[in-house]
Amino acid sequence: MSNLNTTLDALTARFNELHTPKEDLFWAAKMGLTDDPAATQRRHAEAEIAMNRFLQDPQRLGELRSLVPDATTAQERALLDGWIALFAANTIERPEARKLSEEIVEREGELQQARARMKLGYTDPETGAWVDASSNRLALLMRNDPLPARRKAAFEAMRSIEDYVMEHGFLDIVRKRNALGRMLGYEDYYAWRVAVVERMGKRELFDTLGDLAARTAARTRAELARFETAHGEGSLEPWNFLFLRAGKIAAELDPYFGFGKALRRWGRSFMNLGVRFRGATLTLDLVDRVGKYENGFMHGPEAAFFDKGRWRPARINFTANAVPGTVGSGLRATETLFHEGGHAAHFSNILSDAPCFSQEFAPTSVAYAETQSMFMDSLLDDADWRARYLADRQGQRIPMELIEAAIRESQPMRAWDVRAMLTVPMAERALYEIPDAELAPERVKATFRAVERELQGLGSGVRPVLAVPHLLSGEASAYYHGYVMAEMAVFQTRAFFLGRDGHLVDNPRVGPDLAERYWRPGNAATFNETLRALTGAALGADALVDACNLDVDDTIAHARAQVAKLAHIPHDERPVDMDMKLRVIHGREAIASTEDGTFESACDAFERWIGEG
Length: 613
Hints:
Blueprint: H1 3-31, H2 37-56, H3 58-66, H4 74-90, H5 95-117, E1 121-123, E2 130-132, H6 135-144, H7 148-167, H8 170-183, H9 189-197, H10 202-231, H11 238-253, H12 262-272, E3 280-287, E4 297-302, E5 305-307, E6 310-312, E7 315-322, H13 329-348, H14 366-378, H15 383-389, H16 400-410, H17 414-433, H18 441-456, H19 481-501, H20 510-519, H21 527-535, H22 542-548, H23 552-564, E8 580-586, E9 589-593, H24 599-610
Parallel strand pairs: 3-7, 3-8
Antiparallel strand pairs: 1-2, 4-7, 5-6, 8-9
């Protein structure tokens, strides 16, 4: 065996030895699965530091580059290029910078422990009693509770997260992250992260985001003015705005998004899109609880790849934070299943000869990864998907009148929704641009409020910036811009399929086309290369902006036309088979599995556990 092949085999083995335990500890720590959370977090930090030492070692990158002349076949060159790209995105040349990187990981772990200990909740304005509530429950209250005083209490509880994390070391982490970015030759931490993950400059990125903000500003201002006229004084306060937009509609939709049926709807929809998981094992933890990380995510402890020609399927974990019995919980669960399930489908279908191509971190583009998940969850807003898949517990289909009412609520504010998404990366960029000497809680909060008011046009943002957990954790910091870029790509992708096929729901060409054009290469292709492979064009905002500016009546006319097509779109009702093994858990409790049964029997077990079966 040549030195090149020996080196590549050793890299694969060492990567898996480090990656899998790190990710298993990540899951245990985030899910609160152990009796000693602090010890688990320390072990995870140690595992992450060990992986970082492996990836950041400049000697290893130099050795790989010296082997380029030995790569004589196309397969060898592709493999070597993939490993070089992985190490180039992570290598840190200076020893003091590597040491600082390890300090940051330790501080982030300490902050996560502190955040998990936070006594979050609100004082009920009717009873005066304290109510424990996760950030997910608070968000649902703000959107759905009919009592303004309780919505305001929930909002103030969400805002308390900002003071808490800044009191527990977040700003020190920001200083250290910025110091690391500058050591590596960038203006700040955000610039470094964008360069290594998205392979683009910070200015180029924010020029793109700024253009999108400019193209959605006029529609947003006009709709907010109409909204305030219609709903009166106080309607643009953050604790009132979402409820007045959707509270009544959300309550009417809720019976049709029954939480117990969420798993069944997800499986049927994905199978009928032609999505398959190539033998992957998926573990799902879907319900909110104390000690559990308060945001959905997908991580893959075992990356999919061909190991000397033998397929090694992925092992993937993903989570949601649904609150059963709360208005909106079924929709929330379904959104997360489609979103994180889209990630899982992507990372299960990367057909490569090494795990460097199919792991979810740099050089895998955030925008590329989020396009796959957000495309899937975009289907839930489609009138034809709702008409086909939504029914209440008595089996009554959702009426078209309710579908249209939801469109009348959502479409006028679609441009606002984009700007709300833009708020997070714009605010996070501003955070890292504050000089160290001025990095104090009041300055940070004033900066965030200014960004929120500029983009959302409300008294302040509906979700305080530091209540967004991405900013706190290392792997998800300087990340949120990827959602905005992905939203642009999603509408570009939707436009392609609708233009070619006329529909998305139950379109069996979608899964195979995504698998071949988007998923197959993994990070061997750039984000724009995958977009061109499917849609024929690089990333652009036109399709998204067009959707934002579409008139309500035109949107409803389109919805009616799509629903009318359902009579001619087959609906496969065979048993669901997506070529995967499924486990549904709640912490340490096993709820359902396909290991000893079918997908349908697993759904039955889940519905019984929820109390809807």
